[in-house]
Design brief:
Elements lengths: L5 H15 L38 E6 L4 E8 L18 E4 L9 E6 L23 E6 L4 E13 L5 H5 L5 E13 L2 E16 L1
Parallel strand pairs: 2-3, 4-7
Antiparallel strand pairs: 1-2, 1-5, 3-4, 5-6, 6-8, 7-8
Protein name: Class F sortase
InterPro entries: Sortase, Sortase_dom-sf, Sortase_F, TAT_signal
Keywords: Hydrolase, Signal
Length: 206
């Protein structure tokens, strides 16, 4: 299967994904991600040695031990209005991989997003995403049985109006991962900010 062109991916993502999590689960007040945290600089794209790129294989599970995440991963495409889909608001919240981005372990930025709150159901999968720190591990289990492990390079909390599209979706010469959710102060049914985790592939195992 041929992956979509970088231009198509960047255009769709830049136009839609920055604001796609505006609701982040609706009305319930999350217990995390409700205060603006200091942002760290975007990671240097040549600051760390990454593992060799993997072949294309869809992610099926995501684990982040430092914040207690262990969730199935569903596939997300584009909604009818051209915005990026988000995981459904359900009691059993799940993360979603944007299927027009590289799969985890392929060269380029693979994008996984999830809610910080899920309406009346309370906390979402990424409720503690902003607590991640440099060096924390992120494991993605792939459909082919491989586990791609990433190490966090940086965590940023940015205003939605200033979403750093180039840093998130821009070309990189190694396998990287972006985890995205909402954060910062609440406004109505949503949040003012996005929390973005930048990570690079560190290893892969059967």
């Amino acid at each position: 299967m041929t992956s979509p062109s970088r231009r198509a991916f960047a255009a769709a993502a830049t136009a839609a994904l920055a604001s796609s999590l505006v609701g982040c689960g609706g009305h319930a007040a999350g217990r995390a991600g409700t205060a603006r945290s200091g942002s760290t600089p975007a990671p240097s794209r040549s600051s760390a040695k990454a593992a060799h790129a993997l072949g294309r294989s869809v992610p099926v599970r995501l684990r982040i031990p430092a914040i207690g995440v262990d969730t199935p991963v569903i596939q997300l495409g584009l909604a009818s209005d051209g915005s990026v889909q988000v995981p459904p608001i359900t009691a059993h919240d799940r993360a979603g991989w944007y299927r027009h981005s590289p799969t985890p372990g392929q060269t380029g930025p693979s994008v996984i997003l999830a809610h910080v709150t899920v309406g009346a159901y309370g906390d979402g999968v990424f409720r503690h995403l902003a607590r991640l720190r440099k060096g924390d591990r992120i494991m993605t289990r792939l459909e082919n049985g491989t586990t791609a492990e990433f190490a966090v390079n940086a965590v940023r909390t940015v205003a939605k109006a200033d979403f750093p599209a180039d840093a998130v979706y821009g070309n990189v010469d190694r396998p990287e991962l972006r985890l995205i959710t909402c954060g910062g102060p609440r406004t109505g049914d949503g949040y003012l900010d996005n929390v973005i985790v930048f990570a690079a592939l560190s290893s892969a195992s059967p």
